[in-house]
Amino acid sequence: MIQFESIDSPLNINLCSFSTLLSHDPLSVSVGFSIIGGLITCKLVPEFKESFIKAKLTGKDLAKDDKEPPIPECMGVICATVYLVCMFFFIPFPFMEWFSGKGKISQSEEFHAPTFPHHKLGEFLAAMLSLQSMTFLGFADDIFDIRWRHKLFLPAIASIPILMVYYVNFGVTHIVVPIPLRFIFGRIIDLGFLYYVYMSMMAIFCTNSINILAGINGVEIGQSLVIACSIAINDFLFLNDADPAVEAHLFSLYFILPFIGVSFGLIIYNWYPSEVFVGDTYCYFAGMTFAVVGILSHFSKTVLLFFIPQIFNFIYSCPQLFRLVDCPRHRLPRFNPSENKLEYSRVKIQKPLKKPASFVLDLFELLRLVKVDKGETSIEVNNFTLMNLLLLKIGPLHERTLAILVVVIQILASCLSFYIRYHLVHFFYEVI
Amino acid sequence: MIQFESIDSPLNINLCSFSTLLSHDPLSVSVGFSIIGGLITCKLVPEFKESFIKAKLTGKDLAKDDKEPPIPECMGVICATVYLVCMFFFIPFPFMEWFSGKGKISQSEEFHAPTFPHHKLGEFLAAMLSLQSMTFLGFADDIFDIRWRHKLFLPAIASIPILMVYYVNFGVTHIVVPIPLRFIFGRIIDLGFLYYVYMSMMAIFCTNSINILAGINGVEIGQSLVIACSIAINDFLFLNDADPAVEAHLFSLYFILPFIGVSFGLIIYNWYPSEVFVGDTYCYFAGMTFAVVGILSHFSKTVLLFFIPQIFNFIYSCPQLFRLVDCPRHRLPRFNPSENKLEYSRVKIQKPLKKPASFVLDLFELLRLVKVDKGETSIEVNNFTLMNLLLLKIGPLHERTLAILVVVIQILASCLSFYIRYHLVHFFYEVI
């Protein structure tokens, strides 16, 4: 049986969805857990500040005066732990109807589970396991500063449980080819093993791409919240009993709603001026949540659409990430204390330039993506990140303004994604 | 259907078991992973020493000269992480036969899984999730020094996934009453919800009881290795295709063997004189491994039998743990540098004694479990731990000798447990 990402029109955005929402008991419970999770995070973060400072888990705010006291770092671990505990308590709820003997399994699933949907429970457990692994690894990274080349592959290891469950529950490795490419590949390609590679790559991408669009107050959680809300809105569009994908989108909501809750609980303290930093832990935790939901709910392409700013930032960063151009330890915008604003930061490259560096610089200059100042023995160029690019184009900005700008870009990108997903999709796929 | 811990005779300890062993492919793979896990731990621990010292995760060896440099603390996290990664890669192997289409499900399981044993995969995932949660919480405890009353309940939260899977896969809450008590309770009691409370209590007990029989070089891993080997030996006794419990004991072996592997990899550096400390992380990780295996393989009573020294130490410690008698921060034996030996440590209690304290002291003195020195305004008594008791009875010992002694006691206790489990059991249960 060939399954693929279900493609539907947005006509279902109506009150019907919301009445259906209320009829799904576990969903109401999930909303409850999300609110409770947010409140607990909100309460625990200030309580744990002292412990973090005592444990020397602190950082310096690079975009503030030197005199500021050190700020507790990697508080994302609190929010992730609250999330995981909430999910532990939530796991039984979607299965309540089976416990009370009222559970019914849809016809297509009958062959799986005549008495209890063990395969669905497996999905929950695997998703939790992957999320927890990634949180754990993120926390370890915050503490031990794991080497770049090692940490790149950690998400791949953390995604093993979901890939395993994907294999036994779905095992679908076919993709439907976009219409314009069908004259080459035909309608369906079986990627086989490569599909699993694609899914691990997705986990690697989601976690690391949030981690490199980071560094100023509130921006990590800001972008994650926009992505999470976009996923949740997309899920609500499918919450119609008649929709075959309703189960998958409920699964997604169960994971995304508490994520939104705990993230709100944390951003209160992380927004400008930050009282706490979120650390790599949060970025990994957030990225993995999106990857897990995308993979196990079969809309990985839609999730990736919500990552447009991250994809741009990643491609733009590649020359530095892959060391074609020198990459300093921090590529954050530079703080100008006299104006209390952030300016784009620059990197000095010694002449003579190597060929790839010179090619990249020429190309990016042609595309007006960089500003190159040529000196006698070296050249200076802005660091290749979205935030530096914004500061280059717009001029120096206050830290809060830059964070708001990034969030606004993320929101606009989400609007574009919805447009692509529900309108332009006609040019690429048949809409069922 | 009423299931209970299967009670079998030890007659199967024969070559047949070992030939069966080799015929179980996943078991050979598990042995392979255990060896690899041990080697990797052995390689990583010295490599990470510097990172731990840099991250200020260090401790002072209280039973050494003051001049010794600080020692990397909570290295158990390395061994637990290696274990978890090994298990991630191992998970598919027990299911290989289903992937190749050759899998067969035993008749009793047919109603569960006509196409794939999703319920078994669920057990693996839940076990991993509980183990990982406990490791994560242990690590957090090492870093943040979580309050005693909070950390007592962490294992209960970490055990939710296995309880959930226990509920849906087995749901058995009946216990068979020992013969001498049947005239009161009848042959079978249904504990209902209390059975789940019992299982969480077991997780709390296993993790914390190892954590309180700790503090001198090598003793945490030493006792855990003896318990793990005892569980493994007990599992091998059932590895006979005819035995109905073979699946459960294979499950247990898959979790215990890699644990033995990584623990050996770590004890090399933790045995006297320690180059690294294992931290609460290791104690929690070890305890949870035993609890998970006991619960999901249905031999929790047998696992508890292997905890005799820990049970004794716990009961003996109760007056201090529950603050009937003053409890100092550390109850470790006291180091005497002039003789390079450990002596029992003492606690001073101000007079007048409260009634419960006075009762406990009188009772323990009667049982010759304490040495009380009465002064005018206060009395001094040895701290209530197994190690202090040994030093009280035998006299001062070298640290290595004391660690060996604890391990020997653990081995003797295991021999006693096997005797109880396979001989005295006739007095309590019908042997099938």
Key features of this structure:
homodimer, 432 residues, mainly alpha, 2 domains, three-stranded antiparallel beta sheet, two-stranded antiparallel sheet, 18 helices, 9 strands, disordered N terminus
Average residue pLDDT of chain A = 87
Oligomer: homodimer
Integer count of domains of chain A? 2
Structural class label of chain A: mainly alpha
Biggest sheet: strand arrangement of chain A: 7-9-8
* Through-space gap between termini of chain A: 17 Å
GO molecular function (chains A, B): glycosyltransferase activity; metal ion binding; UDP-N-acetylglucosamine-dolichyl-phosphate N-acetylglucosaminephosphotransferase activity
InterPro entries (chains A, B): Glycosyl_transferase_4 (IPR000715), GPT (IPR033895)
EC number (chains A, B): 2.7.8.15
Protein name (chains A, B): UDP-N-acetylglucosamine--dolichyl-phosphate N-acetylglucosaminephosphotransferase
Q: Could you please describe the fold and organization of this structure?
A:
- Two copies of one chain form a homodimer.
- By secondary structure, the first copy, chain A, is mostly helical.
- Chain A folds into two domains: 19-98 and 115-306, no CATH class; 321-398, no CATH class.
- Chain A has helices at residues 15-23, 25-54, 76-90, 96-99, 118-144, 148-151, 154-158, 160-169, 182-185, 193-212, 219-237, 246-270, 279-296, 300-305, 308-321, 355-366, 386-394, 399-428; strands at residues 58-59, 71-72, 174-176, 188-190, 334-336, 341-343, 346-350, 372-374, 378-382.
- In chain A, the strands form four sheets. A three-stranded antiparallel β-sheet of chain A has the order 7-9-8. In chain A, strands 1-2 form a two-stranded antiparallel ribbon. Chain A has a two-stranded antiparallel sheet with strand order 3-4.
- In chain A, strand 5 (334-336) and strand 6 (341-343) form a beta hairpin.
- In chain A, helix 3 (76-90) packs parallel to helix 13 (279-296), helix 5 packs antiparallel against helix 13 (279-296) and helix 11 (219-237) packs antiparallel against helix 12 (246-270).
- The first copy, chain A, is globular.
- The first copy, chain A, starts with 14 loop residues before the first helix and ends with a helix.
- Chains A, B: This is UDP-N-acetylglucosamine--dolichyl-phosphate N-acetylglucosaminephosphotransferase.
- Chains A, B: Belongs to the glycosyltransferase 4 family.
- Chains A, B: It is a multi-pass membrane protein.
